[in-house]
Design goal:
Shape: elongated
Strand content: 15-25%
Structural class: alpha/beta
Strand order of the largest sheet: 10-13-16-15-14-17
Number of strands: 18
Helix content: 25-40%
Largest sheet: 6 strands, antiparallel, barrel
Radius of gyration: 23 Å
Amino acid sequence: MHRLARATVDLGTLRANLARLRAAAGARAVWPVIKGDGYGHGMLAVARALPDAAGFCVADLEEGLALREAGVDRPVLVLQGAHDGPGLAAAARARLTLGVHAPEQVERIVADGGALPPRSLALWLKVDTGMHRLGLDPETVADARARLSALPAVRELGVMTHFACADEPDHALNTRQRSRFAELSAGLSPRSACNSAALLSGAPVADSVVRPGIALYGASPLLEHDAASLGLLPVMTLASRFIAERTIEAGESVGYGAAWVARRRTRVGYVAVGYGDGYPRHAPPGTPVRTLAGEVPLIGRVSMDSIAVDLTEAPAVRVGDPATLWGEGLPVDRVARAAGTIAYELLTRLTPRVPRVYREGA
């Protein structure tokens, strides 16, 4: 393996984070969210590392069918559901659980469900309790519930929703959404509402299945808490190595556009990672990078294959030494805040050219 930039994924830490989430969930079942290629960690690797998970959640049928083809036999919830007859039939054959979030999906299932084997469909109604993204309008839920439950092909009819402001536990919308969900989910099972933030904030929600995503991978879902304070550890460490260094004089610039100009004589180090690997191009000067001598600041614009950092205060760092972009010793949340984004984006945008190296760890 000759590429210097690589993402080390600690599967032992992944399992430890799941144990933390299970403790928070209590009697509720935990279905980890592994969409977006396992938030950049590798969907199949994550699923195989968690063989005792109660179930998994993915975004679409392609992801769900890929799990089945790989031999994953746990329940799998396809959040976006099926969008046509062939998709509905494929989901039934693969025993996937389908989200139902739009009137068109209800009509499709009613129209095509009669041709499916008895008890071959598991459906979860997604209800819009206030986020106004995907979800059935509350006034349509009773009709959808009655029509779908009458189909011989339906073996399970659950219900789910999604919180808009769970990362701000005191936000008034959370209370309204919890109340609406309690009303709309009465008599249905399973019931699923909590994401990572709602689960770890201890919100009293009437659900039986929780769907943690970002917390599983060791990033914080709550605005006022870092991951470590929540008992979570980083699963992925993105690292590379220094491939060059030079010293420039005050007044000289670094990188494209000459956007960063040295105010003093500056020792500059160059790390083999860039936006071609998924490192954020918009990361500004000052974004932290961890070295053997401590943290140093990014300088200049991020290039496709490299970044520059100020090594003036880290004279011991040499070409060939490692640099951590995020992960162990440098939480991804800190890098995301510096870059004006969120950990979700950094993790999921890591490109395929970065090798994922898996270890068991803790």
